[in-house]
Amino acid sequence: MSTDPARSGELLLPSGDALICAQAFGSAQDPTVLLIGGAASSMDYWEDGFCARLAAAGRHVVRYDLRDTGRSTAYPAGAPAYTRKDLVADALAVLDGVGAHTAHLVGISMGADLAQRIALDHPGRVATLTLQSTTPGGTGGPDRPELPPMEPRLQAVFADQGPGPDWSDREAAIEAMVEGERAFAGSVFDAERSRALSARVYDRTADMAATQTNHWILEEDGSSDPDPAALTVPTLVLHGTEDPMFPLPHGRAMAAAVPGARLVPLPGVGHQYPPEPLWDLVLAEVTAHTAR
């Protein structure tokens, strides 16, 4: 384990063939909350102020850069040499690196998928789960016809096969990142705040092209999708009322699928990290849930 002098308190932690960059807030004597990000997003999206407030509530808060984001190991764009199993192992390596055997896991989108996998495969290491912006599976197809598909405006984004920006061009990349966030967001969206955060992300990222590509093309590793009905830890489900990727019925279905889970809708929020106007609500819910 080593400290990265580029930013106060950052650690570079070994996990298999990778180094994972992590940062902790608060006292290690408090219960640990591990924040697990979504696809193509570094730890920065768990904003400093959010982490500091959760730590002030008596939690040891740990965030980290997934592979191919931030200062963690990056692979050539289009050729990620890892699978979701490795991303699960990375989360456990971060917990080992900060000396936490058991933690409360808070995961968003792909991070919620990883959190479920950890809880199912390593139940002794998980105290509670908080799952945001996720689904029990299915997007309106014959398997789950009651769940609506992604909204047309987001379908158009995924259907756009254009060349995209030159990720080596800082200003073009930042603008593309802001517009990407806007596409996933609900009505609670601050473009200037997103631009400042995107600039920070860009300046911390080893390979922006890899970040924007590799998580979306991970090869299947033979593992099955998590079964929410098999989860046995206390679970809180947070879901934006304006999520264009997994509309709110997905959140309701997720809460219904996990035994004993509780749903908290986030008004005006899309498929996005908790925006600052919702921090009071989200932090109150997470603090209460992780007190269990």
Automatic annotation (TrEMBL):
Record InterPro entries: AB_hydrolase, AB_hydrolase_1, AB_hydrolase_fold
Highest taxon listed in the record's lineage: Bacteria
Pfam families: Abhydrolase_1
Gene Ontology molecular function: hydrolase activity
Statement: the UniProt record of this protein carries the keyword Hydrolase: yes
Alphabetically ordered keywords of this record: Hydrolase
Domain AB hydrolase-1: 31-271
PANTHER family according to UniProt: AB HYDROLASE-1 DOMAIN-CONTAINING PROTEIN, HYDROLASE, ALPHA/BETA FOLD FAMILY PROTEIN
The name this protein goes by in its record: Alpha/beta hydrolase
Source species: Nocardiopsis changdeensis
